Amino acid sequence: MALSGLDIYKLLPKTNCKKCGFQTCLAFAMQLAKKAVSLDKCPSVGESVRLKLEEASLPAIRLVEIGTGERRVAVGQETVLFRHEEKFHHPTAIGLIVEDDLPVAELDRTLGQIRSLRFERVGQQIGVELVALRNTSARTEVFVEQLRRIRAAVSLPLVLMACSAETLKAALRLCASERPLVYCPKATDLEAFVTVCKESHVPLAFRASSLEEFSAATKKAAQAGFADLVLDIPENTTTERLWQLTQIRRLSLKKGERSLGFPTMVVVNTAVESEAVCQAAAYIAKYASILLVRTTKPEHILPLLTLRQNIYTDPQKPLQVEPNVYPVGAVSQDSPLLVTTNFSLTYYTVLGEIESSRRPCYLLCMDTEGMSVLTAWAAEKFGAEQIADTLTKFKLADTVRHKSIVIPGYVAMMSGDLEDKSGWRVVVGPREASGLPVFLKNLAQG
Ligand code: SF4
Question: Which residue from 104, 306, 362, 388 could staple onto 337, CB 3.0 to 4.6 Å apart?
Answer without folding.
Answer: 362
